[in-house]
Amino acid sequence: MMQEPQTEPRQNISSPSQQPAPRKLYVKSFGCQMNVYDSQRMADTLAKEGFIETQDPADADLVILNTCHIREKAAEKVYSELGRLRKSKQEQGSDTMIAVAGCVAQAEGAEIMRRAPVVDLVVGPQSYHRLPELLRQARAGERVVDTEFPTEDKFDHLPAPSARATRKRGPAAFVTVQEGCDKFCTFCVVPYTRGAEVSRDVAKILSETRQLLAQGVREITLIGQNVNGFHGLGPDGKVWGLARMLEALAELDGLERLRYTTSHPRDMDDDLIRAHRDLPQLMPYLHLPVQSGSDRILRAMNRKHGREMFFDIIARMREARPDIALSSDFIVGFPGETDADFEDTMDLVRRIGFASAYSFKYSPRPGTPAAEHDQQVPEEVKTARLAELQKALEASKAAFDASCRGRTFDILLEKPGRQSGQLIGRSPYLQSVVVNDPPAGIGELLTVTITDVGPNSLAGRAVAAAEPIRLYQPARMEA
Ligand code: SAH
Ligand code: SF4
Ligand code: F3S
After folding, report:
1. What atom of ligand 1 comes closest to residue 368's alpha carbon?
2. Domain 16-146 has CATH 3.40.50.300
3. What CATH number does the domain located at 154-403 have?
C-alpha cells in the first residue's frame, strides 16, 4: 500500500483568523510526459508558497498552462484555452493570474504577450525554479517573460514533492534524467524549445528515486527527450550510460518496475539491450519512435538510422527479451514523401507488429529545415495516408491486446475503478486492467489472468497461488 503521509506541521489552532486562506493553483498540461513531470515540479514549488491544487480553473488564484509546440494544432490550443480563460475571468470579474509555461512559452513568449493581454507571466522550461520570484513581479503589476536558459541547474532549486502530493499522484512516478536534444531531426522543434542535451548527475537521480520509493512509489519511468542518450556523471566520477543507471536503480529496495521513454533508435546500444535481458524490473515494453519506413525519408528527416537498422534493433531486443512489446511514433506526409515511401512505412508496420503507436500528419514548424522544403505534401494526401496507417496500427494493437487474453502477468494497482470494489492497474505493457474485488490494494502488484479484452482496457482475475501460468508466445517478425 502507499504509505500514509508524514505528519503535517502543527497548525496554530488558537488563532485561525490569522491563517491566510490558501491560494489555489490550477495547472493544465499539454504534450509529453516531460510536461507532466514539470507541472508536478511547479506545483511542488508553489506548494511551498502556500498554493494548493484545484481541479477547477474558475476556482483558481493562479492558472498555469504548460504548453506543447510540437505540432501546429498543439501550439494553437493554448490560444483557444486563453480565450476561454479571458471570457470566464470577465464573467466572474475575478483577478485570477494566468501564466503560460512550456514549449510554446519558450518558442513564442513575446507573441503570446502580444496576442493574449490576459497573460500575466510567460515562463520557459528552464526557469521553473524562478516561479515564486516571477510571480511576485507579476503580482506587482509587471507582465513578465522569462525564457532564458540560465546557467544554474533548475533541478537543484525545485523542491521535492510532499508525501501527500506523491500519494495523490499514485504509485507510478516519472523522474527526469535528461533534457533537451542535439539530434535536430529536420521536422522537430524540441532542440529549439528544450535546448541542448543535458543529463542529470546519477547521484541526484538516485536520491530523487529513493525519496519517491520511501513515499510509496513502486514504478519509476525515467524520462528525457532522448532518454537513451543519457550520459550522466556517475558517483565514481565516470560518465554513466542509461544501462548502467538502470542497473543501479534496479538495486533500490522497493522499486518493482522500471521504464524509460523516449528513446532514439541510434542510441539503443548493446548495454541497454542486455539490460532488458538481465533486469527483471525493466518492463518488457519499449517505445521506440521510427517516424518512417522509407530510407529516403529517414535521410531527409536527418534521423541517422535506416529501416534495416530499426529491424536489426527489434530483432536483437526480441532475442534479449522474448516477451517484449513495441510501440512507436510515425509521421506521414513529410515533404517529398511519395506513395512508394509511404508503402515502405506500411510494410514496416506490418512486419513489426506494434502493440501500440502514435501517428501524426507532418506539421511544418517555424524555424525547422523541413518547413522550408518546396515539396510539401497536400493536406488531402496526408489525411488519406494517416487514415490508412492508423487503420493498420489499430489492427496491430487489437491483435496484441487479443493475444493477452488468457495470459498471466503482474499488474500494478493504481486507482479505483468506476464500480465499487474495482481497482485499475497497469500491465507490463501499460494496458489498463480492471479487476473486481482484488485481494490487494493501490500501490501493490497483483498477479492476474486476463479474462476479457475491450477497446480501451482489459479485465483480469486475481490468480490463486497454485494455478498454472500460461506463458507468452511472442509474434515472430515476418522474414
Ligand atoms: N524524442 C522523440 C520524439 C519527441 S516528439 C524522438 O526522437 O522520436 C514526439 C513525436 O511527435 C515524434 O516522435 C514525432 O512522431 C512527432 N512529431 C515531432 N515533430 C512533428 C512535426 N513537425 N509534425 C508532426 N509530428 C511531429
Ligand atoms: Fe525531436 Fe529528433 Fe530530438 Fe526526437 S531526436 S526530440 S524527434 S529532434
Ligand atoms: Fe511538446 Fe515540448 Fe514535449 S514541444 S512534446 S511539450 S518537449
Report:
1. 22
2. no
3. 3.80.30.20
- The domain made up of 408-462 has a fold known as OB fold (Dihydrolipoamide Acetyltransferase, E2P) (2.40.50)
Q: Judge residue 285's burial from the number of C-beta atoms within 10 Å of its C-beta, 0-12 exposed, 13-18 middle, 19 or more buried.
A: buried
From ligand 3's centre to the CA of 70, what distance in Å?
6
Tell me the pTM: 0.91
Read off the pLDDT of residues 168-201 as tens digits, 9 standing for 90 and up: 999 999 999 999 999 999 999 999 999 999 999 9
* Phi/psi of residue 286, nearest 5 degrees: -130, 125
- In terms of Cα–Cα distance, which of 292, 282, 283, 199 is closest to 248? 282
Q: What are phi and psi of 132, to 5 degrees?
A: -55, -45
pLDDT tens digits for 108-137? 999 999 999 999 999 999 999 999 999 999
How far apart, in whole angstroms, are the C-alpha atoms of residue 153 and residue 137? 22
Query: How far apart are the CA of 263 and the centre of ligand 1, in A?
Result: 12
Before 262, cis peptide (omega within 30)? yes
In the chain, which residues fall in CATH 2.40.50.140?
Answer: 408-462
Q: Which of 68, 106, 192 to mutate to test the pocket of ligand 3 (most atoms within 8 A of CB)?
A: 68
Task: Give the ranges where 353-475 is alpha helix by DSSP (H).
Answer: 379-403
Which residues form ligand 3's pocket by a CB distance below 6 Å?
31-32, 34-35, 68-70, 102-103, 189-190, 193-194, 225
Task: Quote the ligand 2 centre to 104 CA distance (angstroms).
Answer: 16
Instruction: Provide the grid cell at 62.
Output: 493562479
Mean pLDDT across 313-320: 98
